[in-house]
C-alpha cells in the first residue's frame, strides 16, 4: 500500500462514518416520537399488584383489566400534558362500553390526590406506582401514555402523549368500536 492510498483511506473512512451518522440523524428527525412501537402490542398485559391511590388498603391488579375493554392511562400530577388531557378523560368516563383505569406514575400521593379532588376522577380504579415498578413492566417511559386492552387482557394499542378529540376520533374510538364488535368469550 502506498503512502498516498494510506492517506486516502484515513480520509475516506471517517468521512463515510460521518455521512452514515448524518443520514441516521436525518432519518430520526423525520420520525414521530408518538409512533414508537411497543413490544407489548398483541401480548397479554403484565401481571401487577399495586396499592390504590385513593384507598391504599386496596390493591389494583391486572385482574381489573380483564373481561372489559379498558383504557389504561398512565398519568402524574407533575405532567402538563396529563392536565391537558384530563377533561377528555372525564368525557370518556361517561361513554358506555369501556372502563378507564389509571396508573399514577412516579408521583407523590398527596399531589395526585389533590389533582383528582380538584379536577374530578374519571377512573374506576387508580393504581399508585410511585417507584415505577408497574411502569417498568409496561414499558412506560413518559406520561401520559395510554393502552387499549381487549376483554381477553391483550394489549391492542399504545398511545404516547395526551388524548384529545382528534386522537379519540381518528385512532382510539375506531379501535374500541372494533373491539366492542368482537364476540365475547365465555
Automatic annotation (TrEMBL):
<dbReference type="GO" id="GO:0017004">
    <property type="term" value="P:cytochrome complex assembly"/>
</dbReference>
<dbReference type="InterPro" id="IPR013740">
    <property type="entry name" value="Redoxin"/>
</dbReference>
<dbReference type="InterPro" id="IPR004799">
    <property type="entry name" value="Periplasmic_diS_OxRdtase_DsbE"/>
</dbReference>
<keyword id="KW-0201">Cytochrome c-type biogenesis</keyword>
<keyword id="KW-0676">Redox-active center</keyword>
<dbReference type="InterPro" id="IPR013766">
    <property type="entry name" value="Thioredoxin_domain"/>
</dbReference>
<dbReference type="InterPro" id="IPR036249">
    <property type="entry name" value="Thioredoxin-like_sf"/>
</dbReference>
<dbReference type="GO" id="GO:0030288">
    <property type="term" value="C:outer membrane-bounded periplasmic space"/>
</dbReference>
<dbReference type="GO" id="GO:0005886">
    <property type="term" value="C:plasma membrane"/>
</dbReference>
<dbReference type="InterPro" id="IPR050553">
    <property type="entry name" value="Thioredoxin_ResA/DsbE_sf"/>
</dbReference>
<protein>
    <submittedName>
        <fullName>DsbE family thiol:disulfide interchange protein</fullName>
    </submittedName>
</protein>
<feature type="domain" description="Thioredoxin">
    <location>
        <begin position="39"/>
        <end position="181"/>
    </location>
</feature>
<keyword id="KW-1015">Disulfide bond</keyword>
<dbReference type="Pfam" id="PF08534">
    <property type="entry name" value="Redoxin"/>
</dbReference>
<comment type="similarity">
    <text>Belongs to the thioredoxin family. DsbE subfamily.</text>
</comment>
<dbReference type="GO" id="GO:0015036">
    <property type="term" value="F:disulfide oxidoreductase activity"/>
</dbReference>
